[in-house]
UniProtKB/TrEMBL annotation, chains A, B:
<dbReference type="InterPro" id="IPR005527">
    <property type="entry name" value="MinE"/>
</dbReference>
<dbReference type="GO" id="GO:0032955">
    <property type="term" value="P:regulation of division septum assembly"/>
</dbReference>
<comment type="similarity">
    <text>Belongs to the MinE family.</text>
</comment>
<dbReference type="Pfam" id="PF03776">
    <property type="entry name" value="MinE"/>
</dbReference>
<keyword id="KW-0131">Cell cycle</keyword>
<comment type="function">
    <text>Prevents the cell division inhibition by proteins MinC and MinD at internal division sites while permitting inhibition at polar sites. This ensures cell division at the proper site by restricting the formation of a division septum at the midpoint of the long axis of the cell.</text>
</comment>
<keyword id="KW-0132">Cell division</keyword>
<dbReference type="InterPro" id="IPR036707">
    <property type="entry name" value="MinE_sf"/>
</dbReference>
<protein>
    <recommendedName>
        <fullName>Cell division topological specificity factor</fullName>
    </recommendedName>
</protein>
<dbReference type="GO" id="GO:0051301">
    <property type="term" value="P:cell division"/>
</dbReference>
């Protein structure tokens, strides 16, 4: 499971793009249990899309289900001119 | 900024509790810009609370604003008997 790669290479100079990363991890008590992460995934993407203009091809979603832990990683490149919608 | 601590100590035996961690990181293009993470924070917590019974005192929220990157870390211990509500 890749940790937040862009943290390790934080450039001092302002970057020409914006980026939003979301990492979700659910540690289950029992093995066969339903997947909370799969349930949350669409709703969290919908919350983000409400506030940020998102190009579908600039959204990278990775989900990994282990025996006890399921992780979801969402990596979104935000177009500069759009940036954040007024809340 | 602490990375997902419980990833490093994944126990093979099933744990007696469930845990959900959310890590959000927004890398901004310009320094003074509004805080997307602060905008998303409440709505993401609301999405989670819809699907998981959350005890307020078992929710740990940490936000750190750096020059270019703002991070939000949410750490929720989920009571076993509650677990995930039927979606």
């Amino acid at each position: 499971m890749s940790i937040f790669r862009f943290f390790s290479k934080q450039t001092s100079a302002p970057t020409a793009r914006e980026r939003l990363q979301v990492l979700l991890a659910h540690e289950r008590a029992s093995v066969g249990q339903s997947d909370l992460v799969a349930v949350l995934r669409e709703e969290i993407l919908a919350v983000i899309a409400k506030h940020v203009q998102v190009d579908r091809d600039k959204v990278n979603v990775t989900m990994e289900r282990g025996e006890h832990v399921t992780t979801l990683e969402v990596d979104i490149e935000i177009p500069i001119k759009a940036g954040v919608r007024a809340a």
